[in-house]
Specification:
This protein has ten helices and 15 strands. By secondary structure, it is an alpha/beta fold. The strands form four sheets. The protein has a five-stranded mixed beta sheet with strand order 6-5-9-7-8, sandwiched between helices. It binds iron/sulfur cluster.
């Protein structure tokens, strides 16, 4: 039984905050889940950089069958098969479920809600979330805020009010994280999958013609085209990362976060007439794109830019030398 505590998306921090505050709740939820499925081992997969949460879990854990696996800080470390690869050393096929590795993966918050359901008889009526971005006043310490136990059905606008109010201008409201979130509206309700609400920076004026490179673990083609439209750019070419394989109508990555090379894809977009590329790629592949696109005269935009700019984070670009 593996707990996905990667909190993979940048900006989102509510999972780690709950673990930091209540490590025993996650450990208890995991033990209940292990007992239900007769799992002999429990593993909490968490990024090494979350030192306080890691320390809290280590100090609270008295169960010899439960251990921690520390993860590298890269996107998409929280992808289910990436977690299994890191914990068990097995790379599953895109069509495989975790059971193919004799494993079950569940999220950290789900395990905590299992503890509440079993021990406190509390139904699943609340959700933890991160509210971030263009908050009125723009004070640095308010740009990312965590709210625990928000009742499902709460309006998006009410959450931004709680965070201090929406800033005067913003690009869009995202429900979810910068990579996989979707555009939302102030009247939309918080639902069981709402992990983040982000008011992004205003979009800059993009080039006239742009090429789109789609990642399986990030914004889908439709969302990428929506972002291109917000940049005021016409999409003249769409390429998919060669590790992105279609499974039952959606894309799955063959080896999440391990770049297969992107030069051919970038060249194809240039040939299609792109004056710049809009990418949604993982950190490793974004690094590769940055090793070739600028040399081909193509500026690079990333689907997460507007969200990351809103909280003054580094953009997803060149992470390390190749
Ligand atoms: S290898 Fe390709 S499909 Fe996989 S995570 Fe990276 S960009 Fe996405």
């Amino acid at each position: 039984m593996i707990i996905n505590a990667a909190e993979c998306e940048p900006i989102l921090s509510h999972n780690i905050e709950r673990i930091r505050q209540k490590p025993e709740q996650l450990l208890r939820g995991l033990r209940i889940a292990m007992d239900v499925v007769h799992a002999t081992k429990g593993v909490i997969a968490i990024k090494e950089k979350h030192t306080e949460a890691v320390k809290a879990l280590r100090e609270a854990n008295k169960d010899p069958d439960i251990s921690l696996t520390l993860l590298e800080d890269m996107y998409p470390m929280g992808e289910e098969r990436a977690i299994i690869r890191e914990v068990l050393g097995k790379l599953l096929k895109v069509t495989d479920l975790p059971l193919a590795a004799d494993a079950i993966v569940t999220n950290a918050e789900t395990a905590c809600r299992i503890q509440e359901a079993v021990d406190e008889h509390k139904p699943f009526i609340d959700k933890d979330m991160t509210v971030a971005g263009k908050i009125a006043g723009n004070e640095q310490d308010k740009l990312i805020q965590v709210f625990l136990d928000v009742p499902l059905g709460t309006k998006v606008s009410a959450m931004f009010e709680k965070a201090g109010g929406l800033g005067d201008s913003y690009g869009e409201l995202i429900m979810g994280g910068p990579f996989t979130g979707k555009r939302t509206s102030p009247d939309a309700p918080v639902i069981k999958t709402t992990g983040g609400l982000i008011a992004t920076e205003c979009f800059p004026k993009g080039p006239e013609k742009i090429g789109v490179l789609v990642c399986a673990c990030s914004a889908c083609q439709e969302r990428m085209e929506q972002i291109a439209a917000s940049l005021g750019s016409e999409v003249v070419g769409v390429e998919k990362c060669k590790q992105a394989k279609e499974v039952k109508g959606s894309l799955k990555c063959e080896n999440p976060g391990r770049c297969p090379g992107q030069v051919q894809k970038v060249m194809a977009l240039k040939k299609a007439g792109a004056q710049a590329v809009l990418i949604g790629n993982c950190t490793d592949c974004s690094n590769t794109v940055m090793s070739c696109a600028p040399q081909l005269g193509l500026p690079v935009y990333h689907s997460t830019d507007a969200a990351l700019r809103a909280v003054n984070f580094h953009l997803i670009r060149k992470i390390k030398n190749r």
